[in-house]
Amino acid sequence: MTIDRNAPCWCGSGKKYKKCHLSLDEKIKTYELKGYEVPPREIIKNEADIAGMKKAAVVNNGALDLVGEKICAGMSTEEINQLVHNYTIEHGGIPAPLNYEGYPKSVCVSINNVVCHGIPSEDTILKEGDIVNVDVTTIVDGYFADASRMYMIGKVSEEAERLVRVAKECMEKGIQAIKPWGFLGDIGAAVQEHAEKNGYSIVIDLGGHGIGKIFHEEPFVPHVGVRGEGMLLVPGMTLTVEPMVNAGGYEVYIDEEDDWTVYTEDGSLSAQWEHTLLITETGVEIIAH
């Protein structure tokens, strides 16, 4: 669709098109004409969108900080759920997971061989040596922020500690690979190389995602890939990098009873870190961590 240079920009900023996204659109068009996959306009954020996501991230980051202060052996995963739920509500947010496609809690808590989407329960008690992923997503004024962190309970095995460390490095390698006018495959390639170099595997059935006014929007962000392939990355895109790193094979399965909890197929340990990111003109900015 052609827009007059002096018409309001399609992004809703209120600025004239020529002063807002015209130059970006022209550059994207050059890639599209060469046959590259380019992002749809609806996932490119304006200044107000970015400000809204950052506001949500303040609450999201605070909830994860609180978990880090309180988490300990003997605590139930339901207690973590209550901590996150209450903190989020008290700070003007909405816990995004609660009732999302039927998910029953306000946070995901995944222990040891649980890859992701562990459902909090009064019956699940943290113990010495556990590694735990807590995944928090917050809505504030219609905008989402999403991040997860790993926590080690007391003294953990050297194997578990190394996995947690390398999983964080994998996320960081993926983030470092993001460049404006780079490609989605750059992220997955960097993550995959670091994991496999350390003897680990990356879950391929699950990945990161675009995020903004919608919990999960385009693009799907795979954590395996080939450099120079996949969607073009442009300034204004917001997405998560959240590799799930397994000590054993990459295969996973979903619990048939709750239809949510994802386990490693071979029972091996799994670890994951997640940040929400903004692609800028010069690189990448971490929004939620």
UniProtKB/TrEMBL annotation:
UniProt catalytic activity: Release of N-terminal amino acids, preferentially methionine, from peptides and arylamides
GO BP, one annotated term: proteolysis
Residues engaged in binding a divalent metal cation 2: 146, 209, 242, 274
UniProt cross-references to Pfam families, sorted A to Z: Peptidase_M24 (PF00557), SEC-C (PF02810)
Names of required cofactors: Co(2+); Zn(2+); Mn(2+); Fe(2+)
Amino acids binding substrate: 117, 216
GO molecular function: initiator methionyl aminopeptidase activity; metal ion binding; metalloaminopeptidase activity
SUPFAM superfamilies according to UniProt: Creatinase/aminopeptidase, Sec-C motif
Keyword tags: Aminopeptidase, Hydrolase, Metal-binding, Protease
Binding site for a divalent metal cation 1: 135, 146, 274
InterPro entries hit by this protein: Creatinase/aminopeptidase-like (IPR036005), Pept_M24 (IPR000994), Pept_M24_MAP (IPR001714), Pept_M24A_MAP1 (IPR002467), SEC_C_motif (IPR004027)
E.C. code: 3.4.11.18
CDD domains according to UniProt: MetAP1
Annotated ranges, domain Peptidase M24: 52-281
Transcription found in the keyword field: no
Coiled coil stretches, renumbered: none
Cofactor note: Binds 2 divalent metal cations per subunit. Has a high-affinity and a low affinity metal-binding site. The true nature of the physiological cofactor is under debate. The enzyme is active with cobalt, zinc, manganese or divalent iron ions. Most likely, methionine aminopeptidases function as mononuclear Fe(2+)-metalloproteases under physiological conditions, and the catalytically relevant metal-binding site has been assigned to the histidine-containing high-affinity site.
Assigned protein family: Belongs to the peptidase M24A family. Methionine aminopeptidase type 1 subfamily.
Subunit structure, interactors included: Monomer.
Function, in words: Removes the N-terminal methionine from nascent proteins. The N-terminal methionine is often cleaved when the second residue in the primary sequence is small and uncharged (Met-Ala-, Cys, Gly, Pro, Ser, Thr, or Val). Requires deformylation of the N(alpha)-formylated initiator methionine before it can be hydrolyzed.
HAMAP family the UniProt entry points to: MetAP_1
Protein name in UniProt: Methionine aminopeptidase
Organism this protein belongs to: Candidatus Cellulosilyticum pullistercoris
